[in-house]
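Question:
When you can, review this sequence-structure pair and walk me through the tokens.
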Amino acid sequence: MKILCSLKSLLLFSYVAVALIPLLISGGIGFYVISGSMEREISEKHLSLADSVAREMGEFLDVHQRMLRQIGSMVSGGGGMPREKIDEYLSETRKNHPFFEFFMVIGADARVTHTVPPDENLSGADMTYQRYYSEAVR
């Protein structure tokens, strides 16, 4: 009786092993292939998304950089704008383009001539030693 029980268990174990081993092997190979494929696909999508975001940011910044150049030419004297109207012009530009939070106009002598919104602490301040000023003058 003990031999029959043992033989029955051995046959059952052999049958289960024969059925499961190929299934486990094919599942492991399938997992390896699919995970590699999905990883490549996800990487390609991330790269595509990063490329798209970089392109959009470049366009966004180009528009505002061109606008700053135009504002600079208007307030620097090339646009023929009277000095009294500069603050009004900058305020209107700031209202129409909320991307700009603050405008500061620095004269050729490195002193602040206009700020929008007005800041009395900066009015007439010397910007000679500010890094952004020295980089802009170069």
Summary: The chain is about 65% helix and 5% strand.
